[in-house]
Amino acid sequence: MKEVRILSLDNRGRIVIPHTVRKTLGIQASSQIMLIADSETKEVKIKPIGMVTDSPIKFRITMEDSPGSLGKIATTFGKYGISLVYGEALTVEKDKVAVWTVIGPSPEKIGLEKFKEILLTEGDALDVEIIPLLEEEE
């Protein structure tokens, strides 16, 4: 069943997802959703994500733009039991540099800095930027 609603933004750019839609999709106050904005088609998609962590992390990984580079890094995530919920790859300079941005949980068994080191060594990443998606509450 599809529900179509026209929603308005408030003066801070927020929208309210109607109760019936939240209930149908199982979205609660503590749920996380992903917003995907496509500047070419001028579309916005909002998807509930099944993240079982309170601290999702965005990894921006710079790598060589060569066959197998992305696979090697993806295998490293799998080896350490990190299941990704979103990924987007972009070639920065053909046959030289690419960037893979992924969202997933923070590694449970090893710290972020250690995992960054592993991506650089085992995954052959050129650079790894780690960005927490939720800001600390003050």
Short description:
The chain has 138 residues and is of the alpha+beta class.
Radius of gyration, whole Å:
18 Å
Helicity level:
10-25%
Please give the alpha-carbon distance between the first and last residues.
40 Å
Q: Tell me the strand percentage band.
A: 25-35%
Q: And the CATH topology of the domain at 56-132? A: Alpha-Beta Plaits
User: How do the SSEs run, as a string of H and E?
Assistant: HEEEHEEHE
β-strand number: 6
The CATH architecture designation of the domain at 56-132 is 2-Layer Sandwich
Question: What is the average per-residue confidence, as pLDDT, rounded to a whole number?
Answer: 86
Structural class: alpha+beta
Protein model, in words:
This protein is an alpha+beta fold and 138 residues long. The protein has a domain at 56-132: Alpha-Beta Plaits. It is built from 3 helices and 6 strands. Strand 1 and strand 2 (43-49) form a beta hairpin. The longest helix has 11 residues, at 69-79.
Question: Any descriptors?
Answer:
138 residues, globular, four-stranded antiparallel beta sheet, Alpha-Beta Plaits, 3 helices, alpha+beta, single chain, two-stranded antiparallel ribbon, 20% helix
Write the layout of secondary structure elements.
Elements: H1 19-25, E1 32-38, E2 43-49, E3 56-64, H2 69-79, E4 86-93, E5 97-105, H3 112-121, E6 127-132
